[in-house]
Design brief:
This protein is mainly alpha-helical. Helix content is 73%, strand content 0%. The protein is built from 12 helices and no strands. The protein has helices at 2-7, 11-23, 31-43, 47-59, 67-79, 83-95, 103-115, 119-131, 139-151, 155-167, 175-187, 191-203. It is elongated. The termini are far apart.
Length: 204
């Protein structure tokens, strides 16, 4: 049915069909086919298709690995309103992969991702405020961004927030709050949360 929708011009149908081929659900797993359906969706103006195709180029799945192409498709996705594309492009600017390293651009792209509902974007932006990379170092902003990330389900955001409470960076020092956030991350199956919870619990 999704194939029929895609053939009939539904770009959403193409994306869903691409996911089926990527995951091998209902069809034999075929990364080349997945990439082609994501490309069709992207060419039809569906930003999520561009983001997924960028991921295929980044990982070399179904296409020859090409970080420059990955960045271009993430850019197209971001410009089309797909927050995940902004997040992925931010990561490329952060690390200098496929583009010239640019911390300022990374911060701005993480901001778009965070505002678009990608919790990891909030945490990554918080890291940059914490370290003073691409922005003026500001622990209060780092705390607020990591709190948002944690509240929206990003386990690493919870770990980072726990460390800030433990050290008293941007907040009043509190081992109790640190334990609370480490525990929350651990409940999300994040090993770093469990390790830090056990470590801090032992210190008390």
């Amino acid at each position: 049915l999704w194939r029929k929708a895609c053939d009939g011009g539904s770009t959403g149908g193409c994306v869903l069909l691409g996911f089926m081929y990527e995951d091998g659900k209902g069809v034999t797993q075929d990364f080349f086919q997945a990439a082609e359906f994501f490309r069709k969706a992207c060419n039809g103006g569906y930003a999520l298709g561009c983001s997924n195709l960028g991921g295929m180029y980044e990982d070399g799945k179904g296409v020859t690995q090409d970080f420059f192409q990955a960045a271009e498709f993430f850019r197209k996705a971001c410009e089309g309103g797909e927050a995940l594309g902004c997040f992925n492009l931010g990561g490329m600017y952060d690390n200098g992969t496929g583009v010239k390293q640019d911390s300022f651009q990374a911060v701005e792209l993480y901001r778009k991702a965070c505002n678009g509902g990608v919790a990891e974007g909030c945490n990554n932006r918080g890291v940059m405020y914490n370290d003073g990379t691409g922005v003026k170092q500001e622990f209060f902003q780092a705390v607020e961004l990591r709190r948002k990330a944690c509240d929206e389900g990003d386990a690493l955001g919870c770990v980072s927030l726990g460390l800030m409470y433990e050290k008293g960076n941007g907040v009043k020092q509190s081992n109790t709050d640190g334990l609370n956030y480490f525990g929350k991350a651990c409940d999300m199956k994040e090993e770093l949360g469990c390790e830090n919870y056990a470590r801090l619990k032992k210190k008390r």
